[in-house]
Amino acid sequence: MKEQFKILMVDDRPENLMALEAVLASPDYLLVGVTSGEGALKCLLNDDFALILLDVQMPNLNGFDTAKIIRTRQKCQNIPIIFITAISQTEENVLEGYDSGAVDYIFKPFNPQILRAKVDAFLRMHHCQLKLVQQREMLKRQIAEMDNLNEQLTNTTLELCRNEILLESMVAERTQRISSILESIKDGFFAVDADYKFTYVSKAAEPILGWSRQELLGKTLFEVLSHNPVLTKQLVAVSTGESEEPVCFESACLLPERCYEVRVYPAKNGLSVYLNDITERKLIDKEMARLDRLNLIGEMAAGIAHEIRNPMTTVRGFLQYAKSGKAALSPANLDLMVEELDRANSIITEFLSLAKNKNTDKQLQNLGNIIESLLPLIRAEAILDGKTVVEDIGTLTDFPFDAKEIRQLILNLAMNGLEAMQTGGTMKLRAYEEAGEVVLVVEDQGSGIEPDILVKLGTPFFTTKDTGTGLGLAICFSIAARHQATIDIKSSETGTAIYVRFKLVVRQD
Q1: Angstrom distance (rounded) from CA 344 to CA 338
Q2: DSSP 396
Q3: Closest by CA position to 67, among listed 86, 93, 91
Q4: Half-sphere exposure of residue 180, counting CA atoms within 13 Å on the CB side?
């Protein structure tokens, strides 16, 4: 029976729900309609949905508030939400819809074919995401099961090898009992004496070595493994060594397209060798690594977009500020905007600074000049959100630094400070000299940072923002390290202050 996608339709007008049902009628869809935001939340408590079509204008709980509540629920965070409205079509309302968690916005009257196409596309994407999560969980379970089995087999083998020294002095009955235990192990096991002659071979080792048990007993290791000089050399090296500790290594030269974990237990009277087939485990590890690389590519792409959006947003804010009539764009302002656009173009290359050492273009210059050149951009962004920026720049000594990187560091810290504050807040940019250091301080009036989060700041991809990537502060720490600077963060309920300390005498790269 083909799986049906459950779609939740929310609209306070029943006739609109009937219209949506008519457009989306399909044996592939299971349509559920409710007439209020409260009804939608109740449905999500009791059932799982692949897509939500949500009206904006509804009495009591409107579409924006409903979407925000949905996004706070753990199991509903990845369900795509499409807003459908005939009223809230302004840019402000559209942006509010996306901030509330929507993935798309459709205006009435809508084109039925376009609606069906979008619904089908988002359902496919949601289905693929669920499949990927299921596959990863399945692989994790398989690896855990295999590791558990491997641990059990290893423990069993270790116990057997401890008793092997006593085999010669035991009676035939005890020898037979141990042989039976070895035969129960599905992986290969064999033993050779001090002259490298086979004294015991398990049934499972016969196809691995390519000889029957009767043929192997009495033959030497060099005769049986004449076509595997690498493995022979490894086994001889273990037997001639001074240590009696077990040695483990991988070998792919026993059977074609198979990989074995070879555990060798040396003793005075020979060697005991355990052959564990790890081919399937290697394939699973390879697939897990491939999935991790795909996930990392997505995170890196999101990080690059985040870093390019910062200069683009500030330039756009500068233009909006000038458009409001409060100030005109001077040639110096235009030059700054062009610089920011050029910086956005170079961020992709600079982004590699997280992965490897990067040569910096350090020149003797003044940090105060850099801060003053960025103040118009930072103020423009602050004014758009009803916030204030105050600077306090003392007399600073010139020291060598890369202007582009320091500009990026200041902008990242300033934008984070502005985002941390409510409307009406004030952010301070200070710079002063103290004890042979030039100190840059970015201080906001936000709600502060919890101690358990504070210790993780600067870790790549760690973020508390809904749309953040956790790369901004990581890049700041990387830039500071290249300038032999330190970053200290002090936070309380009244705000957060970030101190960047540059030594006036530093080692030149």
Answers
A1: 10
A2: -
A3: 93
A4: 6
Contact by Cβ (8 Å): 303, 471: yes
* Phi/psi of residue 236, nearest 5 degrees: -65, -40
Per-position b or e across 97-114, b if 16+ CB within 10 A of its CB: beebbbbbbbeeebeeee
Determine how many CB atoms are found less than 10 A away from the CB of residue 328: 7
> Given its phi and psi angles, is residue 210 left (phi above 0), alpha (psi -120 to 50 degrees) or beta?
left
C-alpha 208/C-alpha 271 separation (Å) is 17
Instruction: Name 54's bridge partners.
Output: 10, 83
- Cβ 61 vs Cβ 38: under 8 Å: yes
pLDDT per residue as tens digits for the range 149-203:
878 877 777 777 776 655 555 545 555 665 566 555 667 888 888 888 988 888 8
Q: Which two tokens stand for residue 301?
A: 């792409």
Q: Which long-range contacts (CB under 8 A, 24 or more apart) does 176-182 make?
A: 181/156
Give 295-344 pLDDT, tens digit per residue.
Answer: 655 565 565 666 677 677 767 777 777 777 766 667 777 777 777 777 77
- Is the pLDDT at 350 greater than 60, yes or no? no
Predicted model pTM:
0.36
